[in-house]
């Protein structure tokens, strides 16, 4: 199914989409290989979304949220925690490995806020269409 969808953009009708298609392909290929941390994407309405990542054990300083060329990039890397961990660990089950999660954003999607609470990183996104790009009525003279 994905191949049929991608072949659609090879049609000569779609002019100049090859860069966008390549970007989406790269993000998709990376995303299917990522499994950590788990995340949810919630849609509040047509223009507002929240991406929630489970990042237990990470502090605000350990996480970066960036938007680069239409791609939301969330990275996490815990600082050296050996000082705070007892010398003799009986069981270590909470993941502390570094991660990178990427999400493709559609046109005019902007990160409006991010918060970290109870081990959950919430990233708020909103489609903000500039006035000059919104539909308008042309007065006929």
Shape, principal axes of CA atoms: elongated
Order of secondary-structure elements: HHEEEEEEE
Question: In angstroms, what separates the terminal alpha carbons?
Answer: 49 Å
**Sheet of most strands:** 4 strands, antiparallel
For the record, the CATH architecture of the largest domain stands as Sandwich
Please state the average pLDDT score. 82
Global structural class: alpha+beta
- Count of β-strands: 7
Instruction: Catalogue the unreliable spans.
Output: none
Query: How many domain modules?
Result: 2
Question: What features would you describe in this structure?
Answer:
- By secondary structure, this protein is an alpha+beta fold.
- The protein folds into 2 domains: 1-33; 37-130, Immunoglobulin-like.
- 16% of the residues lie in helices and 35% in strands.
- The protein has helices spanning 2-8, 18-33, and strands at 39-45, 48-54, 63-68, 71-76, 99-104, 109-117, 120-127.
- The protein has a 4-stranded antiparallel sheet with strand order 1-2-7-6, with no helix packed on it. A 3-stranded antiparallel sheet has the order 3-4-5.
- The mean pLDDT is 82.
